[in-house]
Amino acid sequence: MKTFLLRTGLYLSLLFLVANCGIIKNKFLTHSKVTLQKPEISDFEEVYIPQLKSERKNFFKDSDAETHWVDSIYGQMTLEEKVGQLFMVAAYSNKDTTHTNAIEKLIRNQKIGGVIFFQGGPLRQANLTNRYQSKSKVPLFVGIDAEWGLSMRLDSTYRYPWNMTLGAIKDLKLIEKVGELMGKESNRMGVHFNFAPVLDINTNPKNPIIGNRSFGENKVNVTEKAIALMNGVQNQGVFSTGKHFPGHGDTAIDSHLGLPTVTSSREHLDVVELYPYKRMFDEGLVSVMVGHLDVPSLEFRQNFPSSISYNVVTNLLQKELEFDGLIFTDALNMKGISKYRKPGELELDALLAGNDILLFPENVPLAVETISKAYQENALSEERLALSIKKILKYKFKAGLNHYKSIAIPNLISDINPVENEALQYQLYENATTVLKNGGDILPIKDLVNNKIAYVKLGDDTNASFISTLKKYADVTEVTAPTIDSLNVKLKEFSTVIVGYHKADKPWKNNDFTSNELIWLQEIARNNRVILDVFAKPYSLLPLANYTEIEGLIVSYQNNDIAQQVGAELIFGAIEAKGKLPVSINDNFKVNDGLSTDKLNRLGFTAPENVGMSSVKLTKIDALVQKAITGKMTPGAQVVVARKGKVIYQKAFGNYTYDSDVKVTNETIFDVASVSKIIGTLPNVMQQYDQQKVNLESTLGSMVPIFANSDKKDIRFKELLSHYAGLVSWVPFYKATLDAKDKPLAKYYRKIADSQFSKQVADSLFIRNDYHDTIMKIIVDSKLSVKKEYKYSDFTFIILGNYLERLTGKTLDVLATEQFFKPLGATNTFYNPLQKIDKNQIAPTEIDSYFRHQKIQGYVHDMAAAIEGGVAGHAGVFSNAMDIAKIMQMYLQKGNYGNQHYFSTKTFDDFNTCYFCAEGNRRGLGFDKPQLSGDSPTCGCVSKSSFGHTGFTGIIAWADPVTEIVYVFISNRTYPTNPVNILSKEHIREDIQKVISEAIIN
Asked: Binning pLDDT at 50, 70 and 90, where does residue 224 land?
């Protein structure tokens, strides 16, 4: 018989009755207790008709060899050895030798069949597993509660999201991948049973023990996620255990502390709580854990735990549902059972009820004695004992314990923490994060020019990744205040307020808003345009009765670094919203609610493997940068690598200076030297080209009138930008302003600014405003080469800066900021940064002993740009690697970023063309291109369509349309002086680029 579903309606809905708040008289909030109204079975409830038992999926096939091994082992066992197989005892790898010796004693004397590991570490547990297995005649079963991976119990292991978070994901392949990685880590650790997935349908939001451990409140969603997870685990040869039969979701007591009552009718249980078990059995679930629950509709005896109920374990589970896999009790030390039976008696009753494996017994010797006595007195039949023992041996064979191999210790930690974990984690949160409100299309934030954004933190846990990622997209100000009134006063100057609610990322931790936080949220939302991102379980939203004053509402489910990064990405459109709510929130939001949002083509963040790169190979970058720092090639550096629109590597190295303890961070600002050409000047020139104000054949005389009567008047636009115009490379303009001792002449400089000397060159040094005219005259009068050949010249961009300022009527710094830096979100990119930020945020570039005679920090290093007052077409920009990467990504996307159009695809293609390659000139229009021969500026491993630029202070910015890679390296290699460019001679930048190329997987 084929499986089929009768879908005739909607899932079971929950109704929460919320009383008026006695503390805060406002429609926005409620502090009253949320109560659950018991739903009736709907006529539209989906019903599952199970397959025939013979048609069920079987992950672990039976064989004649298995039967022979089981019969052989069983036939050699004494009664004590048989009974011992029933017990799986608690073991810890974080306890002393007293505990270890006690476990060994149980193995030796009581012949126990297995251990369930609790707290400890992977190496310690692996060594103990090997030790315990060596003492056991019949190899032991090893189990562990690893609902979100081994980290539920072990340190130094990877933690996957809670089931509630996974419940928000629609892509079941991702859930199966989680199971696969869980299965691999368990297998590597010698673990045979992962006591997961949780099949409880969490219909009670106040459930004190299930909650985040459940996939949600909808039975179909829970089941589909559980099947996917199980498939992943069991395909790795590890057994999954569905729990807590017959259903712990609709309870209000923690069974560790007492006996919860499930008040549902038999009909309700059959259609709802048992639904996942029926489907899981058909899909090949190996084992079930029976919970300690009081279920009156199944067991007429009052306060009689389901785990020792024959009606539940045998009549329902084995006979009616025809489950013939292994059956575990829940831990027998839990108060939900131990309060009702004494040790020994408890274990016997559990066995007689139909359980196969007795988990976490408190007194194994007494239990063995009691069960053995029952057998000898015929209270326990040979048939009943053999049923469980042979089943246990059968699964030991399936686990490969007939040919037991010890756990290999070398590389264990790296093996259970593969790079795939991080890659998958990004995918999971990208697919889980849920948008519940998007009033006025507040999400994603599109306009970065006119939107002044504040961030306010609520909650008591860390928010560092969230705020730092927000600031990578826009100028976001973190606002704090001692009172809500003073906070709202500060918030008046902002147009959008992002509120992050951050609670400890622990499964049973209270995630509720405090009364004060509710008041603050109410007042912030009432007075501001608000986006609320909840880094906590969705149930934390229950006290909010009304959401009309919250424009944007995001549920990020957990408060960890990746969840916070993804939340920030969603707010700014680097990803779209995909998640669906796995539980209902009062009457405001229902199961499967979740809005889609637009994806803007802004840089996002992910693990290298998600874009076909090797994170292991990329770590070689670290060694190369460290080599540069150790070799005194540069005091500090930043590196950013992005591929396919995702930043996959961003690190900062070293200090501001060799003798400083001030660390370079990802936020540190550097002088980017000649990269200013393609960051500040070139994109504005491209806009003029795009608007047809200039073309490839335009002459310099027509563009800049002062050249109209010079020998340079006929230089064509494409020759000028290709460094093929015959211009002089550079002229030390500043030297003419110095005396014989290389000190600034009073004719040209003042120590204090005035109306005639307002261009600042350095601390207490201002040059006369009209010196720009002198520079331009020197360029006009400079020698022009008769021979047409490639010669790199700063004059090109000095001229273009002048061209832009004359054409637009704006200074270059204003133009670049308005047209590109602000709308791109390049908020850490400036000319003359000291006018905007503190000097301590900027890495120094030189100790100048030949011109300005001071430490240069925050003033442009290039002397020509310095005497232009820090704003010039060829130099002057300060930035960091992340901002440069945004601009390079804009180029890679051919003039589009954040879904904003800056110039046409044709314009980009025209500028990224090498017009004089046949003449031995590699350059594009403004862009540098890969070498035609030799070993710079690139590694020789990038495509011919790649482009970028390098800079004197030790920078390269490069993008490759073929591989879709952006690479930025920034340093202050000129500090303290720059007699020899060792960074260049040692090919550090090129070698890093080669590592990046070699890291491409696909």
From this structure: very high
Task: Judge contact between 254 and 260, C-beta under 8 A.
Answer: yes
CB 833 within 8 A of CB 760: no
pTM to 2 decimal places:
0.94
- The pair of structure tokens assigned to 245 is 């039969």
Residue 596 has pLDDT above 80, yes or no: yes
Sign of CA dihedral 987, 988, 989, 995: positive
Contact 606, 650 (CB under 8 A): no
DSSP H or E stretch at residue 557: none
Q: What is the separation of C-alpha 97 from the centre of its chain, rounded to a whole number of angstroms?
A: 40
- Residue range 89-138, pLDDT digits in tens: 999 999 999 999 999 999 999 999 999 999 999 999 999 999 999 999 99
Give the span between the Cα atoms of 547 and 636, in whole angstroms.
Answer: 48
* Strand-strand pairing, 496-502 and 453-458: parallel
The pairing of beta strand 552-555 with beta strand 239-245: unpaired
Q: Give residue 43's pLDDT.
A: 59
AA identity, residue 337: I
Burial (CB < 10 A; 0-12, 13-18, 19+), residue 964, is: middle
Percentage of the chain surpassing pLDDT 70?
A: 96
Question: Tokens 């069920």 belong to which residue?
Answer: 56
How is residue 921 written in tokens?
A: 């000139």
Contacts 24+ apart (CB under 8 A), 323-326: 323/277, 323/281, 323/288, 324/53, 324/391, 325/281, 325/285, 325/286, 325/287, 325/288, 326/239, 326/241, 326/286, 326/287, 326/288, 326/356, 326/357, 326/391, 326/392, 326/395
Tokens of 850: 């030949």
Residue 773 burial (C-beta neighbours within 10 Å; 0-12, 13-18, 19+): exposed
Residue 17 has pLDDT above 90, yes or no: no
Average pLDDT over every residue of 866-885: 98
